[in-house]
Design a protein that fits this description.
Elements: H1 2-34, E1 49-54, E2 59-60, E3 64-72, E4 78-80, E5 93-97, E6 103-104, E7 113-116, E8 123-127, E9 132-138, E10 147-156, E11 158-159, E12 168-179, H2 190-193
Parallel strand pairs: 2-12
Antiparallel strand pairs: 1-3, 3-9, 4-8, 4-11, 5-10, 6-9, 7-8, 10-12
């Protein structure tokens, strides 16, 4: 009888461990689906790319050039907007670093889309598709370098219809040649900025 109990003990421990593991998994899944603004721990984050663009091929000294940071969000996902409305929603924020003397305007965020999702009773302001965050840089007239480098960091929280993922960041390096104020420049990235520079 004692030998039988000794052989059974490891199996009983393994069974108890397996039951506890399944219970933990179910608890996490229930939390992720039913709490306000849940953070997903059981699903993979979407692959969201970020890119930096200028509206011209060169920056003229003493003049402003338009720039933008753009996210590429896969279908079925969204990110919280800069003003997401929800109390616990992490906003999308873009921070720009530029060389000494180069001025950067405040970032202009796109208008959000207001939706309601399964994971929250609140309406949320979100971005879908390709949101464009715009700003201008102005190279001073006495700028001596032949190129200006701007660094952008964008922080965002992505979600689908059921769960939200932990906040993520993307770092972007944006470089543009610098030329004299009277040198001709050409428009670039018109799908983002429009033909006349506004969109």
């Amino acid at each position: 009888m004692n030998n039988f109990s000794t052989r059974l003990a490891p199996r009983a421990v393994a069974l108890i461990f397996a039951v506890a593991l399944v219970a933990s998994f179910i608890t996490q899944l229930t939390f992720a689906r039913h709490t306000t603004n849940p953070v997903a721990t059981l699903q993979s984050q979407p692959n969201i790319d970020a890119g930096g663009f200028f509206a011209a091929d060169k920056a003229q000294r003493g003049r402003a050039v338009q720039a933008a940071v753009v996210l590429d969000i896969p279908n079925g996902f969204h990110v919280n907007s800069n003003r997401p409305l929800g109390k616990y929603a992490v906003p999308t924020v873009v921070k720009i670093e530029a060389p000494n003397g180069v001025r950067v305007s405040p970032v202009v965020y796109p208008r959000s889309i207001v939706r309601r999702f399964k994971f929250s009773d609140e309406q949320l302001g979100v971005y879908e598709g390709r949101p464009v965050m715009r700003f201008n840089i102005t190279v001073p007239a006495n700028y001596t370098e032949g190129e200006a480098t701007v660094r952008a960091r964008i922080r965002f929280q992505s979600c689908n219809d059921e769960v939200c993922f932990p906040p993520a960041s993307r770092d972007i390096v944006m470089q543009i040649p610098v030329v004299a104020a009277n040198e001709k420049v050409e428009r670039r990235n018109t799908k983002i900025f429009g033909v006349g520079g506004r969109r």
